[in-house]
Design goal:
This protein is of the alpha+beta class. The chain has 18 helices and 22 strands. GO terms for molecular function: ATP binding; ATP hydrolysis activity.
């Protein structure tokens, strides 16, 4: 094969707003701790019931949950009740995730978050603790501790701000202002909630909008206008005439003249009244906008959070980044399960969804291929040549390399559905007349080749019913076909892992592009560790049970043959 594939140029790659880096779970089902890197190719292996599937199931839990609800039992995975999801003996579980933020000043920040979840009732998980950091520096921490039911009810009557209230403990590594909270719905923060301090409101108004400041920079009068206009709309009494005059003048473009005519004493009178009324408000909820929106509308956020110090902006940035990072992961997940459908003459249509475009059992593969016939996908073939072809032709190129068929075609059967046909040895046949392996691998090829750029494609046991030689070639497909997506492959195939190691040793794949995770269980507790590949394809560790059956059987075979030979020679 040719030289290592390089897919890293600025022209070849476009970043989403937040580019996922990793996913971590603690105390999820039997899993004590596991981190899943979200890059290129990750193979997840280990003995049966070692916890491999649990790591993927945690991603599926995210993918099937909505913006305001954690769905334990949905179309992708059914996890039981809340007690089934939290590891036995633990009070909560946690998810962690990290992502690169949007490029800023020719650099990117790495954001990381951790969210602890506890059972609210038999079927419901709710946020318990939240932590955010950027480039390793703590930005925000919040907890449900010391938030009594009475406090939560007074802050969040009727759940108007969300289903959970957390008290902000620290912002930027320092103690947070008192009476500041975050509301959550499901996995996502919703609003920053606080009580305004009238003395702080007055102090900030005087510092920001004194006569000297307004005369030095008349443009800031528009920020003052927004504050006064918002206040006037909710004010219990009619505003003083000076405020009406100021606002009207701003609307008609004569703010500068009014600013130069007003005295500091007149401004102070206005500010005192505004501060007094704002300080008497019950609770103020500042909804969390998107990260980019917050960056471009900082003035609006400062207006909303008047009465808090500037650290409120830091908190908002962390919460916005948390929302966008988690959404980037959730929207990227694509899934194909291990128990794929048996070969069918005709398969159904219309059951697709974003996360499982081929169906969780591959039952809509024909439908996916038919829909992909009208547009081209970009991929690499087995010679690492960049290609751009309709999806069925792209799949055909790789079925040829795998040795399971020369070309793929889809027949539309109207109301009955669509039939998938594979040409084998020059004869086109439906899937029921050829080996089961072909029907099992076609959904894998279609899912990967049809995936959006930067998708996180999760595949369980893609090697099922495949000959060892085909399993090895399947590793080449994972390594080379779509270097612009992230693959998570749960596998029991020693042949697949060995081919990856071989390609690294041959310098046809960078060791950093292939991560091998090994899951193991000890006394009912599962953990996952990363086995580092070096440039020779060797592993940093060879844990017990890591594909050692063939080696031990080979040694036993040699020993048995030697013993038989020795016995016969007597």
């Amino acid at each position: 094969m040719a030289s290592p594939l390089r897919w890293g140029s600025k022209a070849a790659r476009t970043y989403r707003r937040f580019d996922p880096v990793s996913w971590t779970v603690e105390n999820f089902k039997a899993m004590e701790h596991a981190t899943l890197p979200l890059h290129r190719l990750v193979t997840l292996t280990g003995a049966n019931s070692s916890g491999k599937s649990s790591l993927i199931q945690s991603l599926l839990l995210l993918a099937q949950s909505t913006d305001d609800e954690i769905i334990l039992n949905g179309p992708l995975v059914r996890l039981g009740d809340a007690a089934d999801v939290i590891r036995s003996g633990c009070d909560d579980l946690s998810i962690g995730y990290s992502a690169w933020g949007p490029p800023r000043d020719n650099s990117r920040e790495e954001w990381s978050f951790e969210l602890a979840l506890a059972a609210a009732d038999q079927w419901t998980l709710r946020a318990k603790e939240f932590f955010a950091a950027v480039d390793g520096e703590p930005l925000l921490s919040a907890s449900s501790s010391r938030v009594t039911a009475e406090t939560a009810a007074s802050i969040n009557s009727g759940n108007r701000f969300g289903d959970t209230i957390l008290r902000v403990r620290e912002i930027g590594g320092k103690k947070a202002p008192p009476r500041t909270y975050i509301s959550f719905k499901g996995l996502y923060p919703q609003a920053f909630i606080f009580r305004r301090d009238p003395d702080k409101v007055l102090k900030q108004l005087r510092r920001r909008f004194g006569v000297k400041q307004l005369r030095a920079n008349p443009e800031i009068s528009f920020e003052l206008f927004e504050i006064l206009q918002e206040w006037r709309q909710t004010s219990a009494e009619r505003s003083p005439s000076k405020i009406d005059e100021l606002i009207d003048s701003l609307i008609h473009g004569s703010a500068t003249r009014i600013m130069f005519e007003m005295t500091q004493h007149e401004l102070d009178e206005i500010f005192s009244r505004v501060a007094h009324e704002m300080g008497s408000e019950e609770w103020v909820a500042a909804p969390i906008p998107s990260y980019n929106s917050l960056l471009h509308r900082r003035r609006a956020w400062r207006t909303t959070t008047l009465g808090l110090d500037d650290r409120a902006g830091t908190a908002a940035l962390a919460l916005a980044a948390a929302i966008d990072s988690l959404s980037a992961i959730r929207n990227s997940v694509r899934y194909l399960g291990p128990l794929r459908e048996e070969p069918q003459v005709v398969s159904g249509t219309g059951g697709r969804n974003r996360t499982s475009p081929a169906g969780s059992k591959g039952e809509y593969t024909a439908d996916l291929l038919a829909r992909g016939a009208g547009h081209e996908v970009q991929f690499f073939d087995s010679f690492k040549k960049r290609r751009r072809l309709p999806l069925p032709r792209a799949v055909s190129i790789w079925t040829t390399y795998l040795g399971v068929g020369e070309s793929v075609a889809v027949e539309d059967q109207g109301k009955l559905g669509r039939g998938l046909r594979l040409e084998l040895n020059g004869v086109e046949r439906d899937l029921t007349t050829i080996g089961v392996g072909a029907s099992q691998v076609l959904p894998v090829l279609a899912m990967v080749l049809a995936a959006d750029q930067d998708a996180i494609v999760c595949l369980e046991q893609p090697e099922l019913h495949l000959h060892p030689a085909v399993q090895s070639r399947l590793a080449d497909f994972f390594l080379y076909a779509r270097p612009d997506i992230k693959l998570v492959v749960e596998t029991h195939s020693e042949y697949l892992i060995t081919r990856i190691r071989r390609r690294v040793a041959e310098d046809l794949t960078r060791a950093s592009d292939a991560t091998i995770l090994f899951a193991e269980q000890d006394h009912g507790v599962s953990t996952v560790r990363s086995l580092k590949l070096d440039a020779t394809g060797d592993l940093s560790d060879w844990p017990a049970g890591f594909f050692d059956t063939q080696e031990s059987d080979a040694r036993a075979l040699v020993s048995a043959v030697s013993e038989r030979t020795r016995t016969w020679g007597k």
